Amino acid sequence: MAQYLVAIHHPDDYDPFVAEDEAMASDIDALNEEMMAAGVRVFVGGLQPAGRAKSLRVKPDGHVHITDGPYLEAKEHIGGLWVLEVASLDEALAWGRKAAIACRAPVEVRQFH
């Protein structure tokens, strides 16, 4: 069995208190229950907005420089994720489709090494 990241992407100005209504919360809860019942969910977590991130970079002198904000400037960032253990990419993509529908957001599916 392989492990896959199923990442939900949100725009930078995403506010879950505004964007996520009861119907969406119910759909996400149902998806989590389905994943647990299928025995595929290894980990799930939501992330704070990208603006609250800290980025660390090693300078040529070996010191680590810390800056406010995400590592990459982008219009969307990962807002939450699942780690699933499934038999194939096709199975991971099937869960990714369900995640995109439940979260009403773009989803990225990527296998771990």
TrEMBL record:
Family according to the record: Belongs to the YciI family.
InterPro entries for the chain: Dimeric_a/b-barrel, YCII
Domain YCII-related: start-end pairs: 8-99
Annotated protein name in UniProt: YciI family protein
